[in-house]
Amino acid sequence: MRKPLIAGNWKMNTNLDEAANLVRTMAADLDKISDVEKVLCPPFVSLAAVKELIKSTSIELGAQNMYFEAKGAYTGEISPLMLVGLCDFVILGHSERRQYFAEIDEIINKKVKAALESELKPILCVGESLKENESGITEKVITRQIQSALVGVNPHSQIVVAYEPIWAIGTGRAATGKQANATISLIRTTVAKIWNKETAQAMRILYGGSVTAGNVAEFITEPEIDGALVGGASLKASEFLSIVSQTATLKSIR
Fold first, then answer.
1. What is the mean pLDDT of residues 55-72?
2. Average pLDDT of the segment spanning 93-97
3. Which residue among the candidates 60, 96, 128, 164 is catalytic per the annotation?
4. Can you give the residue ranges of every domain in the chain?
5. In the prediction, which pLDDT does 252 show?
6. Would residue 164 show up in a list of annotated catalytic residues for this protein?
7. I need a labelling partner for 152 at 20 to 30 A (CA). Which of 25, 113, 228, 237 fits?
8. DSSP states along 80-143
């Protein structure tokens, strides 16, 4: 059984006070939900503050990005060594990084390997654009992204994959549960070909893209989907709590 995981990606939202207030509002209730792994991914500037607020809970912490070099003249970047001891997870390859910051597959591969070398757990994001989806090349794009990201990576590594169709991120237009499940099944098959079937079956693969408390059940009840990478809804305590709670209930029933 793959333990479900719900990660909240706050993106470039919340200042220090807002981040602290959000965590205080939901930490106690989140902590009570034991059947789901919960990960909060605030902006870099709030990582230390959030870490302190959740230190006695079952909630884990993730960064939203990192650079692949350990140190050096890379003004404004955050290295994996800076995250060690601060958080457990790091989101890599998010479509916004690919789109706005020109992160190509090779860079994401370097980041995945650098994270693992520092014993950070990557949440590797993959996904196709609307044009690619409508052109019928989703399978080609997703396969390429997975294959490129895992070049030279040990198959025993702890990696979580998040399938986020770019056309569904922040648009309110989520994929259907069936669509997401089919693509996530493709990801699992691709991982099995790269590594082996056992590793692919053990890997947790999430859906992301306009996930809300109102539609999470559609995804969580699909057999290949192990949780969600939640964007805007993770900034609302009641909404995020509902997503985690529904996941715990529905996965225990399945």
1. 98
2. 95
3. 164
4. 5-253
5. 77
6. yes
7. 228
8. HHHHTTT-SEEEES-HHHHHHS---HHHHHHHHHHHHHTT-EEEEEE---HHHHHTT-HHHHHH
